Amino acid sequence: MTLDQLQSKFEEFKAKKLALDMSRGKPSAAQLDLSNGLLDTVSSTDYKTITDADTRNYGGLDGIPEAKELFKDFLEVSTVDEVVIGGNASLTIMHDIVSRGMTHGMCDSKQAWGKSKIKFICPSPGYDRHFSICQHFGIEMIPVSCTPGGPNMDEVEQLVANDESIKGIWIVPKYSNPTGLSCSDEVVDRLSAMKTAANDFRVFWDNAYAVHHLSEDKDKLKNILDTCKEAGNENRPFILCSTSKITFAGAGVSAVGGSVANMDWFKGHLFFSTIGPDKLNQVRHTRFFKNIEGLHEHMKKHAALLKPRFDKTLAILEQELGGTSLATWTKPKGGYFISFNVSNGCAKRVVALAAEAGVKLTGAGATYPHKNDPNDSNIRLAPSCPTIEEIEQAMQIVCLAVKIAAIETGVVKDLVHN
Amino acid sequence: MTLDQLQSKFEEFKAKKLALDMSRGKPSAAQLDLSNGLLDTVSSTDYKTITDADTRNYGGLDGIPEAKELFKDFLEVSTVDEVVIGGNASLTIMHDIVSRGMTHGMCDSKQAWGKSKIKFICPSPGYDRHFSICQHFGIEMIPVSCTPGGPNMDEVEQLVANDESIKGIWIVPKYSNPTGLSCSDEVVDRLSAMKTAANDFRVFWDNAYAVHHLSEDKDKLKNILDTCKEAGNENRPFILCSTSKITFAGAGVSAVGGSVANMDWFKGHLFFSTIGPDKLNQVRHTRFFKNIEGLHEHMKKHAALLKPRFDKTLAILEQELGGTSLATWTKPKGGYFISFNVSNGCAKRVVALAAEAGVKLTGAGATYPHKNDPNDSNIRLAPSCPTIEEIEQAMQIVCLAVKIAAIETGVVKDLVHN
After folding, report:
1. Closest partner residue to B137 among A47, A103, A280, by Cβ?
2. Which of A281, B97, B238, B409 has the fewest CB atoms within 10 Å distance of its CB?
3. Residue A32 domain-assigned?
4. Which residues of A touch B91 (CB under 8 A)?
5. What would the pLDDT profile of B175-219 be if each residue is shown by its tens digit?
6. Which of A39, A137, A279 sits opposite B44 (nearest CB)?
7. Which helix (H) or strand (E) holds A377?
């Protein structure tokens, strides 16, 4: 097709005045419905813990026993002393750990992080909220590239070995935001064993999609707390999770896992800021799932809703752009995102064109520190919320935009394919 | 009675092996029962806001509209733009404001508070959790004395006028913890209008007992946001509240009020740490109360449970220590505490003796910065949780302990009275 032909097709889409959204990694209403039963597990006559404790009153800084037990299994740590239950967002836990690092330092810091200029490693593309926390606290971000098995460890190892001011690395280890890919065993081992100039270096292991498989063909993640213990670096990882994309995105339960020293440090700080997280919501969640097997069963219902959406997205990409040199994309086995790389210098234009035709995409560059994608190539696709029909239309438009942008920028002259 | 006689009576109490607790300002189970209906206001088929928004999903950084409306009235601010809804504890909001002050400064700060040594004024006796926050962040605490109408404003005005490093003051303005007394109109006016060397000085107006009257004979608090606006200091107050002692201590809703500039500053920080507080719990609360009148009606049921407990505590004090010079105490019209002053140098001994006889009291000194009561005189009595019978026994023991301690320390030789 020539540019004229593509543009004429594009105008047809524009005339439909669509309003489609593939930007937000949030659950659809149908997914939320799967957990509605949770709202009936607690009532005015039935609200106590399994040990008959009154969840309505003060007490329980780090969670009720059955919630700690459930999240021990979820986080794959060894004991409930390696778990602290949080409020409704793991983002808050991550923010607060960094904030406390800035004002007080970690349990093994020589001084508060805020006393000097510190840096975090930011594998990119990555999760914009991680980068925002760094930016907010004036932490310098060092981007490193991603391989299909996680961050480029050659780069990471060299950086941390020689720079004491590097205090952390952000990683979504399974079905990563936005790549959808998972850390290989080798990456987990190297992250755990690598020598760091800083003795208070931390891996922020944001396992947000730990159980969010699309089918029985699952990625399996090596246990980083175990590997860190074996390497003598047990205080290195903070493992984060939440039920935001399991039950309710706005009213779930979050948790953090790690060494007893890290959990004691965290609880020591919690004492000053809270009387403990909402225990009633912990009761709702533990009654709803009963145990980790119940939670895994529940996730199959999510998969039944999500997989056709991923399949449709990938099918349109393959149909419209397969065999061309205009784009590459990931084929995740779980999570919420597909990472979509268009020709260098085209991502912003594709997002703008899609918007013109009524398709909202995550802003180009959002997946990089300071929203700066040096190649202007990466776009995050989030298929969870739209219907299959909406995805079909939206992805047709996105693919058309990719072709137009490629010709406009001179990447190709015209398109024989399609 | 002689010391021997008192001690023999004391041994009789000890032999009963009692386990009584007058230490914790927490609601009794009967008080919590008053709000059980709240747990049935949301169900698997009925969970949306009045504007039909889906509370289960992401969104709503500063609260759902009906919660903002309710807390606007509760906080007595003018518009919903002067309110931000929090999680289940106002302690978290206060901690986070100070923490953000340390790392970033207020909306009108020249630099982050943590960049230099800063100080807070701590009217004493006061709330230990306020003092803990200061201690945690290395903020120097300057105790000032309390009058029946609030902090000694002569002291306060002189301090803040001359020291730019003084950035805040903690105040529980109504039915204070632990005095049970409320700020006078004059104190509110002077706090609002006083000249401060620091242009980013803040009044932490922790109105934890705003609606917690014991009867129709209520303290009325002048509106500090109004008076601060009139004085041209609209960014001075942060007004805090929660439903911890209205609905559930562990699963309530908190809020902060203040100028639009302060709220925008707070929301700007919130963006980095949360996807918004639990909206479902906001729906439960707003449905349960309907409006501020509903909340006030609800508080009358609390009063019916609390007033007899306060009355009994005060009756035993009067009966056992009235007319002696051994102690003085406050007679609050609301709140959770009675402030009890024994002879100088006796408070620790009284608390220890009471413990020996099975009565747990708040640690002596807990109501002062660094837990240091310079007179060793103040004891906080918390009558909300025990039954009337338990209060009768506990207070008999406390009064006996006061007498024994007074003779032991040579304050008096023996006691003719009683």
Report:
1. A103
2. B409
3. no
4. 273-275
5. 999 999 999 999 999 999 999 999 999 999 999 999 999 999 999
6. A39
7. none
CA distance, residue B25 to nearest chain A CA (Å)? 10
From A289, A311, A336, the end of a domain falls on A289
Which residue in this structure is represented by tokens 């705003």?
B210
How far apart CA A236 and CA A238 sit, in angstroms, is: 7
Across the interface, do A56 and B89 touch by the CB < 8 Å criterion? no
As for the ipTM of the complex, it is: 0.96
Read off the tokens for B152. 């000694």
CB contact under 8 Å between B250 and A276, yes or no, is yes
CATH number of the CATH domain containing A100: 3.40.640.10
Residues B333 and B264 grouped into a single domain: no
A75 located within any domain? yes
Largest CA distance in chain A: 72
Which residues of chain A neighbour B103 with C-beta distances below 8 Å? 99, 102-103, 114, 137
Residue B416 belongs to some domain of the structure: no
Which of A289, A323, A339 is the last residue before a domain boundary? A289
Residues A326-340 have a mean pLDDT of: 98
Cα angle, residue A193 at apex, residues A191 and A194 outer, rounded to 5°: 70
Domain match, B62 and B172 both: yes
Instruction: Tell me the residue range of the domain where A124 lies.
Output: 41-289
- Distance from B88 to chain A by nearest Cα, in Å? 7
Contact call for B277 and A88, based on CB within 8 A: yes
User: Does a structural domain hold residue A399?
Assistant: yes
A189 & A306 share domain: no
Structure tokens at A363: 């802003």
Q: What is the pTM of this model?
A: 0.97
- Most B CBs within 10 Å, among A278, A287, A384, to test the B interface: A278
Q: What is the DSSP string of B299-312?
A: HHHHHHHHHHHHHH
Residues B186 and B246 both lie in one domain: yes
Q: How many Å apart are CA B20 and CA B355, to the nearest integer?
A: 9
Task: Look up residue A369 and give its two tokens.
Answer: 């520190």
For A57, the closest of B26, B269, B281 (CB atoms) is B26
Instruction: Say how many domains are in chain B.
Output: 2
How many contacts (CB atoms, under 8 Å) link A and B?
A: 158
Of A32, A47, A271, the CB nearest to B56: A32
